[in-house]
Amino acid sequence: MMISSNLERNQAILHLCQDILASDERIFFVSSLSKNGKSTELQFRNDRIITKMSKQEVEMFFMQRSLQTSLSKEFDDLIGPLNYICVQRETLLEFIFPYTEGQILVLCDLDVVPNYVAKKISFLLRDFDWRLKETLFA
Fold first, then answer.
1. Residue 102 and residue 117: Cα distance in Å, rounded?
2. Nearest to residue 136, comparing CAs of 44, 8, 46?
3. Fewer CB near the terminus (10 Å): N or C of the chain?
4. How does residue 129 score in pLDDT terms, banded at 50, 70 and 90?
5. C-alpha closest to that of 15 among 26, 4, 1
6. How far, in Å, CA of 58 to CA of 123, rounded?
7. What are phi and psi of 49, to 5 degrees?
């Protein structure tokens, strides 16, 4: 699929989030965050986390994930590129993946195998980034 316009790019991000959500039934929330921490796409099977937060708390949550990724990427040249950040909480597992459009935030149940889920999502992101680059240089 060639990505050439903003509408097509937004559709591609929507499909990417849907594909990530569909990749494992224990993933219950996926959001694409812009480089400044704004949610550009949101897909969920269960929004139990977000419904507990005020609008301001959700914005702070997303912004913090974006900042965390940005600060971690500062060391890419020194210790290698950031693949993803995994945060384990008492109630869920968070994954934050940098990609060309910003970050992908994934929330899932604790009973996933983190490396397996991360590999599947990384593959989907690599495919998305590759298709985007193909379009930009076509």
1. 20
2. 8
3. C
4. confident
5. 1
6. 27
7. -80, -50
